[in-house]
């Protein structure tokens, strides 16, 4: 790839972030026209992307990037192929329409600029996610989508429900992101492969390893939390507290598809196994049916669409789990159709709310004459969602049934789940598209009117695109369907389904779906009450469970904090040393790293004298009758270490140690004379013995650890580096001084700051005690007390 092409693709990634940077100023300067300017950024990125479509259609991946952290083999690397191209197309195209929609929907005020900045930042994060090739880069953008979605969901932070929804989304998707990171690191370290391209070139590298099971669970946790699979689905309906442009973009077309993208991307690497073909269809099928039932129970239009989105995501997961060629084709077609239809219907919901002032389906009716453009968009979106011809959703639904309708038990169960879920979702689509617009208009809606073109333009365009994509299906397959399928199937696939009469099981199932969906629509009120009664009988659910979990977390953290941080220095020291001792011993015992007993060295008499001095100092410290004697005796240990440095040929270190020990003993002795402490430790043995055990375990643990280190082969690379470069780089021949002042200058400055802070704290402590012992201080206290009493 030429440097010009590489630079243009970097520009594709950068344009949304550039738009976010200028969003506040653009809206201040140009008002509502600012949204037109901001929409140009994703449109320009989309135009650049389409310049690479010819190579993408030839199924030749475009790789670009640069080293990010070379020492760890991390690259800021990206891959543009059919799968990432299809997702990037949806992100940028729907994103541009959402930006325009937001210009008409969001009220004037200082918060508008922040909103546009957030949504463009999310666009850039999502774009980076689907284009990432390096595993670590993928995780970085994955978490960036969670952070930006948190900001968007909680945009109206004055509302408690918005704050809760944002926090719930962040906790669930962020927790899944950490699981994903663990899975990616497990794959990376086990296979030695650091990029998706390398994994796709060796598709059996992960399946053949013993870590496949744990890695699969961790990856699925990341995907299921992001794509709202049961029981992690609760964050998505609660995210409807966000402004409607956020719902139509993040929670229908893009962010919730991140988990679907990950499963499609890793299907050649991790799919096709019994575990994959069991877990995904079960979770996907349950999510599809349960969420569709929850959708028909709602009366808020956005909540109805939110639960149908969860159901659609379940259908996609189920198809990817089936994993056949037809199933992956169906997943690609359904992904495209669902993104168009659901983004359209969410915008319709926002338009109704913006004009009528309510989203309650029971309080709406007769809006067709008042809002004809919105009504037309709603009909197109509902028809696409229900899979009616001649919409692209019809082709997707036909392919779904062709993939599931097999004679085995798995085929029967997945087909039943698909028919039930699609029928329920079609009923919900009919409710959303017909109920607000048909019938008699309630008196409270007399002032309802068609919104500005900026609001109805987006849903109308999406509805028309869903129609044209089916009419010109071969063009759609050429640019979207065919290029997206091969990366998922790891082979060349030609999707050729088009509008027409396809008699067979798929058409029969489609007819059944439509008939059942219409019947459920006519009995929607009865169905709503039945599902509501069932849920009331069940009572507990994942949403309530999340609150209980968070409450338990807070209570547990409170109790742990009060135990470990009670404000007492002795407790802090015990906890710190206990953790260190546990880490030392657990690591050595778990890895069988206990050192061999060393041979007794041949020491000179004066070296034996130094050892005897160390032992004598330790005995004196333990047997000292008061703290002052113990502190002075403790200096013997430091002086003995200084003598060892001198005997081993390090006079500068020896001198430093001498000075530090003398200064430390002098300061501690000074403090002890100033503070009113017990002269000796008078605690009972039940308090002393645990500390004695802890100190002995710590001393022995550090001794064994150091013995283990000294028995390993010596790595002289660091020593050779400092020897070679100390004079060349830092112009100093004293290597120790060069390390302290030049190579570790910032660290040394930090150590000096710590010593200075400690000295200042000790000085303040001493002065407080001195002042309180001054008779003048007592007289002032008595005088102030008298004034307060009077």
UniProtKB/TrEMBL annotation:
Subcellular location: Cell membrane; Membrane
Chain ranges passing through the membrane: 30-50, 84-103, 115-132, 138-157, 169-188, 208-225, 279-296, 303-324, 330-352, 373-392, 412-434, 454-472, 492-522, 571-591, 603-624, 631-649, 655-677, 689-709, 752-771
InterPro entries, alphabetized: CPA3_Na-H_Antiporter_A, MrpA_C/MbhD, MrpA_C/MbhE, ND/Mrp_TM, Nuo/plastoQ_OxRdtase_6_NuoJ, Proton_antipo_N
Gene3D superfamilies to which the protein is assigned, alphabetical: NADH-ubiquinone/plastoquinone oxidoreductase chain 6, subunit NuoJ
Signal peptide annotation: none
Recorded topology in the membrane: Multi-pass membrane protein
Any one annotated GO CC term: plasma membrane
Name under which the protein is recorded: Monovalent cation/H+ antiporter subunit A
Species for this entry: Aureimonas ureilytica
Lineage: Bacteria, Pseudomonadati, Pseudomonadota, Alphaproteobacteria, Hyphomicrobiales
């Amino acid at each position: 790839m030429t440097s010009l092409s590489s630079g243009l693709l970097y520009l594709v990634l950068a344009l949304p972030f550039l738009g976010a940077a200028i969003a506040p100023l653009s809206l201040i300067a140009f008002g509502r026209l600012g949204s037109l300017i901001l929409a140009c950024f994703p449109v320009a990125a989309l135009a650049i992307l389409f310049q690479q479509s010819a190579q993408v259609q030839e199924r030749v991946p475009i790789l670009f990037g640069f080293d990010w952290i070379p020492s760890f083999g991390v690259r800021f690397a990206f891959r543009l192929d059919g799968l990432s191209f299809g997702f990037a197309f949806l992100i940028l195209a729907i994103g541009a329409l959402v930006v325009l929609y937001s210009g008409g929907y969001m009220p004037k005020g200082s918060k508008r600029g922040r909103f546009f900045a957030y949504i463009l930042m999310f666009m850039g994060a999502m774009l980076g996610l689907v284009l990432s090739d390096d595993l670590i880069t993928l995780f970085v953008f994955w978490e960036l989508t969670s952070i930006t979605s948190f900001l968007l969901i909680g945009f109206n932070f004055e509302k408690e429900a918005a704050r809760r929804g944002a926090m719930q989304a962040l906790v669930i998707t962020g927790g899944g992101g950490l699981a994903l990171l663990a899975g990616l690191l497990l794959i990376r370290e086990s296979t030695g492969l650091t990029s998706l391209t390398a994994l796709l070139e060796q598709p059996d590298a992960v399946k053949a390893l013993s870590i496949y099971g744990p890695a699969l669970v961790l990856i699925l946790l990341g995907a299921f939390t992001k794509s709202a699979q049961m029981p992690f689905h609760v964050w998505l309906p609660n995210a409807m507290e966000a402004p409607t442009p956020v719902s139509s973009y993040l929670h229908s077309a893009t962010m919730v598809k991140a988990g679907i993208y990950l499963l499609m991307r890793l299907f050649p690497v991790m799919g096709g196994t019994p575990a994959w073909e069991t877990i995904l269809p079960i979770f996907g099928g349950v999510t599809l049916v349960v969420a569709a039932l929850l959708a028909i129970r709602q009366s808020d239009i956005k909540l109805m669409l939110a639960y149908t989105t969860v159901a659609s995501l379940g259908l996609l997961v189920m198809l990817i789990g089936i994993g056949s060629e037809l199933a992956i084709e169906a997943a690609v077609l359904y992904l495209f159709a669902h993104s168009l239809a659901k983004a359209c219907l969410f915008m319709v919901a926002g338009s109704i709310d913006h004009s009528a002032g309510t989203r309650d389906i029971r309080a709406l009716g007769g809006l067709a004459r008042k809002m004809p453009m919105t009504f037309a968009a709603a009909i197109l979106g509902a028809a696409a969602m229900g899979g009616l011809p001649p919409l692209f959703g019809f082709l997707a639904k036909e392919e779904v049934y062709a993939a599931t309708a097999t004679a085995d038990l798995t085929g029967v169960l997945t087909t039943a789940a698909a028919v039930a879920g699609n029928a329920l979702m079609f009923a919900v689509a009919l409710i959303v598209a017909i109920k607000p617009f048909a019938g008699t208009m309630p008196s409270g809606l007399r002032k309802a009117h068609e919104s500005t073109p900026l609001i109805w333009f987006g849903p109308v365009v999406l509805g028309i695109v869903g129609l044209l994509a089916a009419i010109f299906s071969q063009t759609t397959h050429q640019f979207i369907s065919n290029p997206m399928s091969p990366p998922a199937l790891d082979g060349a696939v030609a999707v050729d389904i088009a509008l027409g009469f396809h008699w067979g099981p798929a058409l029969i199932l489609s007819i059944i779906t439509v008939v059942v969906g219409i019947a459920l629509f006519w009995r929607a009120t009865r169905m709503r009450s039945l599902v509501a009664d069932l849920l009331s009988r069940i009572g507990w659910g994942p949403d309530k469970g999340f609150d209980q979990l968070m409450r338990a977390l807070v209570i547990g953290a409170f109790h742990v904090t009060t135990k470990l941080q009670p404000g007492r220095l002795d407790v802090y020291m015990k906890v710190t040393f206990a953790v260190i001792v546990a880490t030392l011993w657990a690591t050595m015992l778990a890895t069988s790293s206990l050192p061999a007993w060393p041979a007794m060295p041949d020491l000179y008499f004066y070296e034996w004298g130094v050892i005897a001095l160390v032992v004598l100092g330790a005995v004196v410290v333990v047997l000292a009758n008061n703290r002052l004697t113990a502190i002075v005796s403790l200096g013997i240990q430091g002086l003995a270490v200084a003598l060892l440095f001198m005997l081993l040929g390090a006079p500068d270190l020896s001198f430093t140690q001498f000075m530090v020990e003398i200064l430390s003993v002098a300061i501690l002795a000074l403090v002890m004379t100033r503070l009113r402490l017990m002269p000796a430790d008078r605690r009972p043995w039940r308090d002393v013995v645990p500390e004695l055990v802890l100190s002995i375990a710590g001393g022995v643990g550090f001794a064994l650890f150091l013995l283990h280190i000294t028995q390993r082969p010596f790595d002289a690379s660091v020593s050779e580096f400092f020897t070679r470069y100390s004079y060349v780089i830092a112009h100093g021949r004293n290597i120790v001084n060069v390390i302290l002042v030049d190579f570790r200058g910032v660290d040394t400055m930090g150590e000096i700051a710590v010593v200075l802070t400690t000295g200042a704290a000790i000085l303040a402590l001493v002065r407080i005690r001195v002042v309180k012992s001054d008779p003048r201080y007592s007289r002032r206290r008595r005088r102030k007390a008298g004034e307060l009493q009077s």
